[in-house]
Amino acid sequence: MNPKPMAAIAGIGWTEYSRKSGRTVEALALEACWNAINDAGLDAADIDGLVSYSLGDSVTTAVIATDLALPQLNHFADFAAGGNMACGAVLQAAMAVATGQASHVLVYRALNGASGVRYGGAEFSRLLAEHGVHSDSEPQFLDTAGITMPAQHFALLCRRHMIKHGTTNRDLAAVAMTCRQHAIDNPRAMMRKPMTESDYDKSPWIAEPFHVVDCCLQSDGACALLITSPERARDLAKPPVSILAGILGASPSNRGAMWGNFSPDHAECYGRYLGDRLFRQAGIERADLSFAQIYDCFTYSVIGQMEGFGLIEPGEAGDFFRSGHGSIGGRLPINTAGGLLSEAYIHGLNHVVEATSQLRGEAGKRQIRDAELGLVTAGGATSTGSALILGR
Amino acid sequence: MQHATLPHPVPTPLSQPFWDGCRRRQITLQRCDDCGRFRFYPCEACPYCRSRDCTWTEIDARGTVYSWIIVRRSVDAVWQARAPYIAGIIELDIQKGLLIPAIVIDCPVDSVRAGMPVEVTFEQTDASTVVPRWRPVS
Ligand SMILES: [Zn+2]
């Protein structure tokens, strides 16, 4: 009883994920875009829409439009945004296709996140402020209180969850170990060495309650997706993946990109407000999902969003992962490529690529049998984010 | 070698009264002229009733620890030099849900607890800058 999909994913592309690409972000973006075009069996001249998001660490759609010598650009969007836009960028492309603005839209994210601008690095507040993501208030009140790194913001959110729901580092470890287990069977993942609970405990504290391994990787690389109409997608090279529903929104009083000082409940996230509408729009129940790719900039982000989207009850995450329910072969496999924690940090767009691979049946050793419906989220269990429901 | 200094705030016309208050060793917040509620960070409108009228008001700056982290490793050299330290969020006693980012001092890092009562003190970090710090109420 699914409604008509608003659009379809007809092509996916990615580059090698590394710590030092030795290449420009322009070269990375182009390689991923060309791979997506070729995957769909299209010509570059068919592309008439481009969407991307960055914090000034990528190349704009104008550069890619020029490098692809596009005859005409009918729709573009360059969002100054964090990973909360990963699914939103795909939704933007889908809306452009559904409303006739463009016919073949590439969505890409390219970054030298390890060898270039590091999001985990110093002066991240300044980066957010310069790109209008922070208001002028946040840096002066956070920086002067020694809160300058994303890990610190998210650790403050995690602590609220620990206070409210009794979450522990054992629960965070279960998330990290599940993601790592999945990365082992992913040839493009950056971290493929198994992680034991003892490995987790030995990882240095960075901002308690977070160890280093509670934080996502920093990566050089790019991903791209080609979005077109469901009808057009059926004529192209690969089995189409339907975009059944999408959301891009926020909880009340969402001022502040990570620690939101006005948020009514810091142990909740945007999913609590937007999740029901997402599933209703897709015409499916949560139990229908074959898998979920949950934005994991930090281990806690997985817990907060799974609760927010109603996939588990608050406080259940640790048992869920320890019981193997989140593993491939389990009740609801989570982050089947290893996620941002163990595959790579391509700012969340790699989660959409993996979801597409799973729904096509192209995921190799980590393939979920009969994968039909998948949830992808983008946001770190803060007050803003985006999400998609994709179907075979 | 240049002496590393802590980051100093870059006040705007909106936030200047807060920092001026700190130099007087006072926490000064906007209070809505219509609904009477305090707010922080400074905003051009009341996030509770939308009113754009407010009065800067000195408060009795006591509160409790709402959230906290122990910063063990920072990529910012000036903060690394202070590590480990407690960074946190204080919920002010004058109004439920009124939060302010904070550093908690005079407290062993492993003994901070949710709900721990704290009061403000101030640290002069450079010639023209005074910032709030928070310490356990003894
Ligand atoms: Zn008011």
UniProtKB/TrEMBL annotation, chain A:
InterPro entries referenced in this protein's UniProt entry, alphabetically: Thiolase (IPR002155), Thiolase-like (IPR016039), Thiolase_C_2 (IPR055140)
Keyword Transit peptide: no
Keywords: Transferase
Domain Thiolase C-terminal: 275-392
Single GO molecular function: acetyl-CoA C-acyltransferase activity
PANTHER family listed in its UniProt record: ACETYL-COA C-ACETYLTRANSFERASE, NON-SPECIFIC LIPID-TRANSFER PROTEIN-LIKE 2
Protein's recorded name: Acetyl-CoA acetyltransferase
UniProtKB/TrEMBL annotation, chain B:
SUPFAM superfamilies, per database record: Nucleic acid-binding proteins
ChsH2 rubredoxin-like zinc ribbon domain span: 19-53
A Pfam family that the UniProt record links to this protein: zf-ChsH2
Domain ChsH2 C-terminal OB-fold: 56-123
Protein name: Zn-ribbon domain-containing OB-fold protein
Signal peptide, first to last residue: none
